[in-house]
Amino acid sequence: MSDYKYPTPSLELARFVCSLRYDSLPVQVVDKIKSILLDGIACGCYGRTKPWGKMVYEFVQELGGKEEATLWLTDFKGPAVNVALALGTAIHAFDYDDYHKSKLHPASVIIPAALTMAEREGGVTTRQFLVALVAGYEVMIRVGLSVNPGVSRLKGWHLTGTCGVFGSAAAAGKILGLDEEQMAWALGIAGTQASGLWAFNYDGAMTKRLHPGRASQSGIMAAILAKKGFTGPIRILDAEDGGFWRATSDKPVPEKLLQAIGKKFECADTCIKPYASCGSNHAAIDAVRAIMANQHVAVTDIEKIIVFTSRVIKTQTGFDYLPATVLQAQMSLKYAVSAAIMFGNVLPEHMEEKCFGHPDMRRLMEKVEIVVDPEMDSLYPEHFCSKVLMITKDGKRYQVRINDPLGSEERPLKWDDVVNKASNLLRGIMAESHFNKLVEGIKNLARAEDEDIGAICKLLKI
What we know:
By secondary structure, this protein is of the alpha+beta class. The chain has helices at residues 9-19, 27-47, 51-63, 80-91, 107-121, 126-146, 149-154, 159-176, 180-191, 207-227, 244-248, 282-295, 311-317, 326-331, 333-343, 353-356, 359-365, 374-379, 415-426, 432-443, 454-459, and strands spanning 69-70, 77-78, 302-309, 368-372, 386-392, 397-402. 52% of the residues lie in helices and 6% in strands. The model has no long low-confidence stretch (mean pLDDT 96). This is 2-methylcitrate dehydratase. GO terms for molecular function: lyase activity.
């Protein structure tokens, strides 16, 4: 390794990634990453059936190329760098994949990077694979925290795309066995490809789905190039002129990048979604469900619903216009609250035009008001919190406040909950016997030191 005169943040990150070992992972982290893997694979296999998922699948198949990695639930194998594009898009295709309070969807970026590269290289053990997943999660999330996620988001960035490239490079680089210098180069090459803009909300465009796939692809390319000796800037994060922090945030918090690294694993705080809606909406969904369950309010008796939330959430999902596409329905706080009232839940089957476009639903959405609350705003993003006030026509007022939604680290889904969610997603897509093998395979990962991750890859072929 070159004799650098001073350490840089990306060099410190590279050192952490290269030194990470399976025996340094707490049991709860290993258990959580297995739940994340099952959830991500289920979301991807489901997401590939959606129009935007199909389009990217078809695009990758048309490109062809060297047979390195499996495009899930097909007989196609292609270059890892391209297959990851399709898998990442598929996992995020229905906004049902995991999220972190740093405003990120890590699974859709990190799982494709680690799994396609493991299949490409061959001979990767399940323990090595899990370590690569954890490394990718840690890097992606810590970069997200360091940009000050709420501030970066309000500049128009989609952090899954901008920060995801770093996590993908770390996961792919770990599989490739990069040394510290090469890993720092990979992070630099990845960072210069960072992209992802929030403009999709205005017309419900499909680009949000593409961002994680593109981030996964870019990180893989960065790791492969670094392995060949292609250099990347080792001050990609902190450079005054053209550094990531300066470019993507007005108020970065660099100390978050390495704070308690190796002692606190941020991946353990990842939220697995119970609802097929933007994670910013989940606290309000929980609040409405609690009111409807405990007070037995009839939909026809509701006069008004007021959601008190943070400024970022109001900007991101509290828009006034009513949803015209599936993407807009999933991003709409007004629709999330209304769907929870009408259906008692917010699941994939509720994200259809016959639901969000129904006249009764549109009338209910018109009764929802989104208000920025100073207290909620001060707690965000450490807490994705909301408070809901429901007012009935006869003047009754019901209020519930949720600091941390179901699925968060404070109220996590159990393994059986994740299995049930995956089972519901894959019904009609994967045979029950095949699904059971997948669940058991993931649950038992890393029990044997020399177990090959290739067994899981084989289960994802048709």
